[in-house]
Amino acid sequence: PAVTKQMVELARAAMRTAAEEARVSAEILTEWRFGDEAFDADLIDLVRTTARGLGIEPMDLLSQAGHDAYHMCGVTPTVLVFSPCVDGISHNESEDVEYEPTIQAVDVLCQAVLARAMRG
Fold first, then answer.
1. pLDDT score of 61
2. Helices assigned H by DSSP within the chain
3. pTM, whole model, 2 decimals?
4. CA neighbor of 55 nearest in space, from 109, 118, 104, 117
């Protein structure tokens, strides 16, 4: 959030400067925020632990994608489990996944959900 706030302030200042230099007026009509929510640390740890228990080394992935899960963070503890895409291409018509890593991701998700449901 602090970095986002700084970026917004820099963008506003740049907009004012550009408007002054062009001798025009500029106005922000709509603001949209993204990036202030965080996934649940306990669930992240559970997914990591579950993956390792299944012999899968997890990789943290920062995503700017506006997944529905991002919006759920304000309502309930939330985490995302990703499956690797072929050649790292994601959110693109060329996106493709292989069967085995997808099954592994589903297994991690299933086992993590069961572990969370069975906690004491």
1. 82
2. 2-22, 41-53, 68-72, 99-117
3. 0.69
4. 104
